[in-house]
Write a structure and sequence with these properties.
The protein is an alpha/beta fold. It has one domain: NAD(P)-binding Rossmann-like Domain (Rossmann fold, 3-Layer(aba) Sandwich), CATH 3.40.50.720. The protein contains 7 helices and 8 strands; from the N terminus they run βαβαβαβαβαββαβα. Strands 3-2-1-4-5-6-7-8 form an 8-stranded mixed β-sheet, sandwiched between helices. Helix 4 packs parallel to helix 5. The longest helix has 18 residues.
Amino acid sequence: MTERDETTVLTIAVLGGTGKEGSGLALRWANSGYKVVIGSRNAQRGADKADELNKLLGGEYISGTGNEDAAAQAHIVVLSVPYDAHKSTLESVKAHLSGKILVDVSVPIKPPAVTSVYIPEGHSAALEARDMLGDEVRVVAAFQNVSAVHLKKLEHDVNCDVLVCGDDEEAKQNVIQLVEAAGMRGIDAGPLANAVAAEALTPVLLYINKKYQVKGAGIRITGLA
């Protein structure tokens, strides 16, 4: 485990933080010194997951509660829920997001065809979030192509770049800092409209995992210094 940086003061809420990817990111951010709140539809489940992660960290660094309370506490809200819960979760926390950054991790996937690209009516989950939340919320898409397999192994190097898409330059840079705090390289991948491509890569990676019998296939952007 790396030494925690206690100087970080931002609070991050991870909605859907009881899932594999959400909890893995929460663990890494808490280990880097951020105050982290796990959000769940069930407040007790959020609290239980926080206790589990705190045992891995060896201290009380993460709290857990319901999604609305978690969003209200945070400076940055990370949405890591299955696509079928995307709209309902946003509706439940919308009142607590004004003036904040929402990092949308969700990927439109239509089971059982999880290895085939599915383009929703709004073109991407992140664009649907922006249209639902309005201009007062700075929506950034990121982390769609990161496998949860190694996130909870804090000593493990996550061999994947993170494409960061958004229309607000400052918000994108803030999210790139979160990517680096989680041990990965963030790549500015342009406006939020480009989230269509980033989200569509996820079922492609799932197909590659299945085809080649591997876990955690990711992406690397070549040619950068």
